[in-house]
C-alpha cells in the first residue's frame, strides 16, 4: 500500500514513524519535515491546497492519503479525493464543521442531546454583553471564537471586566478576523480533561487510547493557551466505564446525527472531554489526531494502522478492533522562547542525535528546518520528545533525560508534563492503572 501523509508537524512525524515501520519505503509526505525526511520521501506541496494534493496523489498512484492537520479538511480535500475516486482518511468539508465552526458543533450537540457546556451564540456585541449582565453563566465564563484559531481562540474570563474586554476583542476589534465574527459564550466546566480518539467510518467507531494534553504555556497550567505543550497516554482517568459512556453518550450519537444530517463522519473524531461530576461533557471536537497527543497515542497502537484507516474509508469498520499497549508514554514539547506569542526562528539545535539514541525514547520534529549550517528552529513548537516506561514516573524520567541533551537558544519546556497521571483524583482516590 502506498501512503501519502499530509502535514509537517510532530503529529505527522508520529504518523510517518508508525506507517513507515509497517510499510517501509511506501510512505511519502507533503510537505513533511526534516525528521520525516529521514524515514520517508518528502515532496513539496501546499498542504492546504486540495487540488495540489489530489494531483500529487494521482501522480504518485497513492492508495491511501492520511491528513494530519484540520486546514486541508476544512478546505475540502476529502471531497476532492472522493470526487476523483482516491481514498483519503479524513472528513468532508461538511463533516469537518464539527471543528471548523464551534457554533455548528454546539447547535449540532443541542440537536442530538450530546452532553456539553450550556451556551449561547452571538454575533452582536450588545446582545453578547447583555447576556453576560444577565448573570446566566456566572464567572469564570468561557468565550470562543467560532472559527479555526490554532487553539488560541478561547478566552476564560474570570470576571465581568475581562469578559467584556474579550468580547470586544473578538466582535469589535476582530482579533481573530472572520473566525471571531461569531462568538460562543459558554458555561465553565470543572473537572479533569481527557482527549478521546475514535477512528470512524461514517457509522461505526473504533476507539484508540485516550490521552491528556497540557494546553497552557507554563507549569501548573498557567499562562496562555497553546497548541499543546505535552501529553501523556493512556490516561488513567479514562476508565473502562467512562470509555463506554463516552462511546454511548457522545461518539455514537455524533455518528448517527452526522449521517442523519447528510454528512457522515469518516476520519479520526477527537473528543476533547471534561470529566465532570455529572459525567463526561464535550469541550470541543477536532476532526483529526491531536498534536502532541498523536505522539503518545500512536506508539500505543499495537496493530497495523493503515488497514484500520483504509477500512474506515471503505465504510467497513464493523467487526474491527484495535490492539493497544498499556505502557505509559509521556511526550514533552520543546518550544521556541515566546511561543505562543512571537518568537525567533533559525536558531541552531544541538543534541538531537544523542537524545534520539536514548533508550525508550522517540524524538519527533515539528518546527525544524535543515540548512547548510545544520538543523535550525522553524516554528513555535520545535520538537516532541517521548519517553516510555513501566510507570509514568519512569516515562517522565526518560523523556526529560533525553530532553536535557537538546538545546537551542531560548528553548522553553514545561517541567511538569505527565505529573498529573499519578496525582490523586479530586475525590482523593489514586487513579487506577
Ligand atoms: P478548546 O480550544 O475549545 O479545546 O479550548 C481550549 C481549552 O480551554 C480547553 O482545553 C480547556 O482547558 C479550556 N476550556 C474550553 N472550554 C471550556 C469550558 N466550557 N469549561 C472549562 N474550560 C474550558
Ligand atoms: N493538542 C490539542 C489539539 O491538537 O488540538
Unique ligands: adenosine monophosphate, glycine
The helix content, as a percent range, equals: 25-40%
**Treating each run of at least 4 consecutive H or I residues as one helix, how many helices?**
14
CATH superfamily assignment of the largest domain? ATP-grasp fold, B domain
Low-confidence stretches: none
CATH architecture of the largest domain: 2-Layer Sandwich
Instruction: Predict the CATH topology of the largest domain.
Output: D-amino Acid Aminotransferase, Chain A, domain 1
Largest sheet, in brief, is: 5 strands, parallel
Verbal overview:
By secondary structure, the protein is α+β, with helices and mostly antiparallel strands. It has 4 domains: 3-92, Rossmann fold, CATH 3.40.50; 118-187, Dna Ligase, domain 1; 193-313, D-amino Acid Aminotransferase, Chain A, domain 1 (2-Layer Sandwich), CATH 3.30.470.20; 329-422, Phosphoribosylglycinamide synthetase, C-terminal domain (Glycinamide Ribonucleotide Synthetase, Chain A, domain 4), CATH 3.90.600. The chain contains 14 helices and 22 strands. The chain has helices at residues 10-22, 34-37, 50-59, 70-74, 77-83, 97-100, 102-111, 125-133, 160-171, 240-260, 293-297, 305-313, 352-357, 392-403, and strands at 3-7, 27-31, 41-42, 64-67, 88-89, 119-122, 141-145, 154-157, 183-187, 192-201, 205-207, 212-213, 216-218, 222-225, 230-233, 266-276, 279-286, 329-335, 361-365, 368-371, 374-377, 381-388. The strands form 6 sheets. A 5-stranded parallel sheet has the order 3-2-1-4-5. Strands 12-15-18-22-19 form a 5-stranded antiparallel sheet. Strands 6-9-7-8 form a 4-stranded antiparallel sheet, sandwiched between helices. Strand 16 (266-276) and strand 17 (279-286) form a beta hairpin. Helix 8 runs antiparallel to helix 9 (160-171). The longest helix has 21 residues, at 240-260. It is globular. The two termini are 36 Å apart. The model has no long low-confidence stretch (mean pLDDT 94). Residues 117, 142, 144, 151, 154, 186-189, 193, 215, 225, 272, 283-284 line the site of adenosine monophosphate (AMP).
